[in-house]
Amino acid sequence: METYNRILESAAELFANQGFEAVSMRDIAKASHLKAPSLYNHFRDKNALYQSCLKFVFRQHNAQLQAVFDSQVSYETQLRGVIQVSLKRMADDQNFRLLIQRELLQNDQQRLKFLAQEVMADTCDQLEKILKHLSPEADHHFIITSIMSLVLFHIQIAPMREFLPSGTSQHLDIHYLSDQIFQLIYQTLLPS
């Protein structure tokens, strides 16, 4: 298991920094301190390794989200928790953030489908349940994708903030961003 995890950690960093196409199995083997043929004892090909890598990188995030979903707090508080956990993860884990960004930019339909249906589906389904409790008639798909885009963009834009009008250090604070995104999304859920 130690070797398996070492491979996934090395692969995650390489895929995040260089992209799927630019990384070879030899590169991953070298970064994992293995001989290339040894990788095939664990993964049949680069695509299988990449899929395992995505699951590995998302596993911790999904576990943190599951703790929010399992909490015995109001649906509003759960929604706030989902946003805060997602912002923190996006800010703290560069490989997590870069893998998502690369997938969106590369627009490979098979990999995007895998990411959406095999890696992110359970947490998105649970988030949708929260949204249904808060506002049954809302466009839940739109709200879920809006949360994703706001979380990703606000972390992604951080290096540029100081050059934008009215930017302050407050705009880099995860709690402040979380509260602002929550308020924006929550207003969308309220009946007109």
Architecture overview:
- By secondary structure, the protein is mainly α.
- The protein has a domain of 132 residues: Tetracycline Repressor, domain 2.
- Helices cover 74% and strands 0% of the residues.
- It is built from 10 helices and no strands.
- The relative contact order is 0.11.
Compute the number of helices. Answer: 10
Unreliable stretches covering 5 or more consecutive residues: none
Give the H and E element order: HHHHHHHHHH
CATH architecture of the domain at 58-189: Orthogonal Bundle
* Dominant shape: globular
Give the number of DSSP strands.
0
Helix content: over 70%
List keywords for this structure.
globular; Tetracycline Repressor, domain 2; single chain; 192 residues; mainly alpha
What is the gist of this entry?
With 192 residues, this protein is an all-alpha fold. The protein has ten helices and no strands.
Please outline the helices and strands.
Elements: H1 2-18, H2 25-31, H3 36-39, H4 46-70, H5 75-92, H6 94-106, H7 109-119, H8 121-134, H9 140-156, H10 174-189
